[in-house]
């Protein structure tokens, strides 16, 4: 028995970095079509022209950001004349903060914390681009946060019309969006849309078989042989598919492995996976609620207060309850419920009777939903 236990300095991880969210795999599977389309949009920038503008759209955990990171890494290894900048708009969601990160990419340091106006900041960026003959490619990750903060028009207008004020300044934009309801033709001003004219690239959810292959590839690279059996892998896949987010599976393996190490075991067991899943299963909830608008958060909170996890609720009756505290029409309420269903936060289905009754049930424990919303 003792010989099956890990020594204090032993590990089940061959490479723990494989299970980090920002890890970019060398072999990136099932996004070849999207990568080719994105590369086509970027290609003019490699020749000194302005890259074509792009929207990468899809649910969370569908490979949008990883695809952009993969191409940006290739650009950095290939040329110094096209400079890619990836902005996390969950963190940097004001015009000044975004351009400060662009300045940092070009100079290696942030602008002075005080005493610098936006005009001075952008002048400095433009002068660098002109002097060095650099083409700039800016990716706005989770750009829907700029919509929520009413910053998207100011940011896009400044980037895309820079050439009108600064000769030979060329800037392309990639917008990454996890909100499927966002229509940029309606969300941005006409003066922005006239120069934006993006091509939209859709990233569909991974199929069950694709999730299995991706998870298997991570395991082969990140764990030693024999650490995760086929039976335990099937359990991981099942929980990942149920959550609807590949990141849950990646995090689940990491936590289960750490749990097995803590218990000094040489392989991952069912108890390790179940213990890890109690934390990992809420990752999708945590990531997704951040993308919701305030109105959508209020509806989700009302649904959480109205019914238990798995309990079916009549949509019409829930709306009557919600409308007492939230000013919202039924059409808008139902649009939000459909979006929450698409984001796999609730289940929306129908029951035939005298009419077609819409039924709603929660995918998560109501207390956890309210906890992450707060």
Outline of this structure?
This protein has 374 residues and is α/β, with parallel strands linked by helices. The chain has helices spanning 32-46, 64-78, 95-107, 118-132, 144-148, 152-160, 162-165, 184-187, 190-196, 208-222, 230-243, 246-262, 270-280, 283-289, 294-306, 315-323, 330-342, 366-373, and strands at 54-57, 82-88, 135-141, 170-177, 199-202, 313-314, 346-352, 356-362.
**General shape:** globular
Give Rg in angstroms.
23 Å
Total domains, how many?
3
Side by side, the strands of the main sheet go: 2-3-4-1-5
| CATH third-tier fold name of the largest domain | Rossmann fold
Low-confidence parts: none
- Would you identify the CATH architecture of the largest domain? 3-Layer(aba) Sandwich
Find the count of extended strands (DSSP E, 2+ residues). Answer: 8
Q: How far apart, in Å, are the first and last alpha carbons?
A: 47 Å
Order of SSEs = HEHEHHEHHHEHHEHHHHHHEHHEEH
Q: Which structural class should the secondary elements be placed in?
A: alpha/beta
Largest sheet features:
5 strands, parallel
Please indicate the percent range of residues in DSSP E strands (runs of 2 or more). 5-15%
What is the CATH level 1 assignment of the largest domain?
Answer: Alpha Beta
Helix content: 40-55%
Question: CATH homologous superfamily of the largest domain - what is it?
Answer: P-loop containing nucleotide triphosphate hydrolases
Mean model confidence by pLDDT: 90
Tally the helices.
18
